[in-house]
Amino acid sequence: IVQIECTYDQPSNRRRNPAPQYIEALETRLHRMEALLKVLLPDVDVNHPNFDLGKLLSQMQTNAATRTTGKDVTAGSGRLPDVGGSATPSLSTEKDSLLESMVEAAGRLDIDESGHMDFHGHSSGIAFLAHINTQLSDLLGGDASGRALVKVRAAAFPKVFDTPGSAADSPFDGQTPNTSMLPTREVAKVLLDVCMDDACVLMRFVHRPTFDDMVNRIYEKDPNDFGDDENNHLPLLYLAFGVGCIFSCDLSEIGILDPVVEGTKYFNIGRRMIEITDCRDIPSIQCVIMMVLFLQSSARMSTCYSYVGIALSASVRMGLHRSLPETRFDPIERETRKRIFWTVRKMDTYVGALLGLPKGIADEDIDQDMPTEVDDEFITKDVILPQSDGVMPMILAANAHCRLLKIMAKMVKYIYPLKGVEASVTGKRSNYSVSSSKLREIESDLQVWLEKLPMQLRPGGDTPKELQKVQYLLKMAFAHVQMMLYRPFLHYISRPKNKGCDERPYASAANCVNVSRKIVHTADEMRKMGILNGAYWFTMYTCFFSVITLVYFVLENPEEITSLAVLRDAEIGRELLASMKDRSLAAKRCSVALATLFGNLPENLR
């Protein structure tokens, strides 16, 4: 008998340890889910021993059913309104339909006693106010458009801001650089830090190391020894001081008792030192951008539009909109060209949307790259160095803001189409409708944008203190786009809903109210954190139109169970704007309009 040894493999009883990459992937997913849950359901504690998932899901389904009636305005400060179309039928399963817009006139042409004309398209706040004022029986005042209220002027800001000037109007002879009005180095540092780190946090168009080097040269050199570089950058320095003044909260410690007056002084000096009608170099365009940052909190939006138009035409003239294969520019110059163009492009999109005016350059004419996402110190004349590990470059937030405004431009194109302009200008009423599929497409674009944000910048994420300001400004900008998306359908909030009718416009109206509440809550959080600044124009106007929306809901739905809470949010928004009126003309205009509105409310709502 042949003896053969038998062997077999016995499975190991030890557990297999998962690969580290697998664990890291799970942890990343968990953190994302927790952050999302914190935003959507801030009051839910999944670790509580009495947590009942089935009960929660049932409650959420009930709330979703309520939302589709167009009456869900119960969103708290932490709830994120529907941005992905969850309150509307699926894009792939539902037939497209047309939603009627509340903005019947596609634009309005205002002519004053002197024959001066101002046109506002139907995406503008003026068009929205005109319709709301009609609906509310002139609660905003006797002027049907409310423009007499929103164009209140403050004595602190002279009428010279109304139109771009020329160096020919300057009292300076241009022979010797005017350095006599420069502040001390200590004051200059404070003002420049505020300008660059606060006012320009989302509008980055300067390479800071290069700018700081130029500041040192201007302060250290004798004015008679200035070369072209120093002379070209001197007006930019004065304008930066002006912006730093109006964006500062308190300058009494450095001897500036009235920042608005001091800022206006620096603005006028810098403005008179450049030929604004002939911008053909980088410092000149940077000067115009700095003027816009100053004027957006101290002048009318139409004035800003004129300055933005100058900056945009100069940018195109210098080829900043093109990705040129030239090697004549070093890395600093190339990145500065990118930053300037995309900053001007953002301003053009924002101001154009607020006024209902067209963009200055078509998308198909642009092939300029986005700015490289590294901090300024990694960009040298010879090479762009890699960003430090674990450190988020601030330009990343500015680029994210730019992508958001691309969605805004798309939203204006499809939600506020040009159709009907001729009829409105001639005084005839013109209705138009919006494709529901386009609305859902833009909702999807916004959701994708939100998901692609770095975790440090997402609402509800673990945000370092130094990034809180930019995170909240992005959150406010995102909500502003949402509000403009849903605003044309706000009138559905007051319409009786017949059985079997299309639910989508009612859901959009509810979303508009929910977003407006979120905007007020966000602004209130910013105030409590000390980062709400009246000089941020889009924050003030966004908050203002949110309050108007909330008051409209309350007046149209006085018996709604949520009306009292909505009115309370409107009061908070009004108080926020009133607290900023002494430092911001935008906030002052809004406060005057809201004082009239709240003063005309029925007795039971005061």
UniProtKB/TrEMBL annotation:
PANTHER family: ACTIVATOR OF STRESS GENES 1-RELATED, THIAMINE REPRESSIBLE GENES REGULATORY PROTEIN THI5. It comes from the Eukaryota. GO terms for biological process: DNA-templated transcription; positive regulation of transcription by RNA polymerase II. This is Xylanolytic transcriptional activator regulatory domain-containing protein. Keywords: DNA-binding, Membrane, Nucleus, Transcription, Transcription regulation, Transmembrane, Transmembrane helix, Zinc. It is found in: Nucleus. It holds the Pfam family Fungal_trans. CDD domains: fungal_TF_MHR (cd12148), ZIP_Sip4 (cd15486). It comes from Choiromyces venosus 120613-1. One of its GO terms (cellular component) is nucleus. Residues 67-94 are annotated as: Disordered. The chain crosses the membrane at residues 535-555. SMART domains: Fungal_trans. Residues 304-377 form the Xylanolytic transcriptional activator regulatory domain. GO terms for molecular function: sequence-specific DNA binding; zinc ion binding.
